[in-house]
Known about the structure:
Elements: H1 17-22, H2 26-47, H3 51-68, H4 74-89, H5 93-111, H6 116-131, H7 135-152, H8 157-173, H9 177-194, H10 198-217, H11 221-249, H12 252-255, H13 262-273
Amino acid sequence: QCIVSRYIFFFFKQKTAYEMLRSLVGSEMCIRDRAHALRLLGKASQLNGHEHTAERCLKKALYMVENIYERSSLITTKFLEDLAEFYECCDDFQLAAFEYKKALTAYERILGTNHTKVAELYLKASDMLWQEDQNDEAKKYIQKGIQILETLGFTNLNVYCDSLTLKGQILVSELKIEEGLSLYQQAIDTMQKISESDDDQKDIARYTEKIRDAYRESKQYGKAIEFGEKAAEIRKSVETEESEDYMESVSYTHLTLPTIYSVQISVVAVSLKKKEQLLIP
Length: 281
């Protein structure tokens, strides 16, 4: 007599509320965590001047989250915005404008048209277009962004300051230099009152650079140099603090992952922890 027994085993892994909400399985959670680690590595590499490594990491991270989330999800759009900000920092305004437009379209689908974040992306995209001398298209984006902010009542002062500088930019382009400078200074004064973070200081530096450019446009080169030096001083102090923050906050265990980037990731983490210079081939 032969007795055959059949056993069926079920294995369950406990999920967090976030993972249950997103319906992620175990492998997808691994991909998500690896994508976040690559994103962090990209930002750290950028701070240390390794732009090629930073770009590869940010693009890979975006590709990974696109494979487990919808393209119009908030997390995917945030990774897309990170890539746009990277290109902006590298002064590749054409690519930055392209990525900001993609992020803007996604945010509009997710959040609707009347949202502060959508207005912010309109203003960022307009700034990149302006840098590329696509002034007519830039003005349309500025007007749309300001229209949204006026509808919302300027609830976000940072974005309000951005709108002031972009209005000033239009005035300067129309050779209304003094009116434009007045709006730039108003943005700086407002930001100095609410400044609470390094990002706020970066905005002040950016507005100061707008004043420098306006003086240069009107051939007041002495003033242009003066405000250029002010902006450089602000940026230098912020970048020094940021570099120290990254070095203190990153640990080895956070970044050691079973990926093709594992060796690089481990080296980066150890270097940051020891406050040594970051060197990635």
